[in-house]
Amino acid sequence: MQVFLREAESMRRSRSEAAETRERILSTASKMFLEKGLESVGMRDIMSAAGLTPGGFYRHFESKEELIAEANRAAFDRLLAMFETQTAGMQAAEALDRIVWLYLNQSQGEGNSFRCPLSMIGGELSHCEPQVRAVAVDGYQRLVQLVADRLTDLGRDDVLTTASGVVSTMTGAVMLANIAGDKAAGRSILSNAHAAIKALLSPVAGIAKVGRRAKS
Question: Is residue 65 pLDDT above 90, yes or no?
Fold first, then answer.
């Protein structure tokens, strides 16, 4: 009986350690992919940064594509959870503006773990395997729904169309700001995007749309 209990405890500890190691690889890979890009980061780089030997990679993941997919899913999970936490208790309009500001400023500061794969490595994701692109599309849809939920609270009836426009504008603005290189130019791009989104979400814009539909 004692032997059986020791073996059971050993198996439980082994599974727990394997899960912790897998999570460490995922967390490290997600951070490195979002900061440096997919092509620039190899498996050896990730395993070394995680404090692990390269040979252990395939005990946890079948391929780099699987790791990219899971790392991006984890990145979306962190991003969405952060938005929910940062806007808890806020009115819909205030929450929306906070989400937009946080998204547009995601590249600010070293070590920021709340980065979106769509805006940081979207160009590379378009060339990845279907399983990776599927995670990116799912992340986009989750972001759209996050915005749409708050637009519903504001009484807008074109929520998905508007939410899609907001997310697309945010994503494109961050991508362009990163490409710009020059910090002043980047800040200008982000500021202009924020102003455009504010105009799109303003009550006057919503009323104008309703008025146009009523006349048609």
Answer: yes
Give the structural domain span for 114. 2-215
Backbone CA torsion sign across 199, 80, 83, 92: positive
Q: How many domains does the chain have?
A: 1
- pTM (predicted TM-score): 0.83
Report the CATH number at residue 75.
1.10.357.10
Query: Which tens digit of pLDDT belongs to each residue from 119-143?
Result: 999 999 989 999 999 999 999 999 9
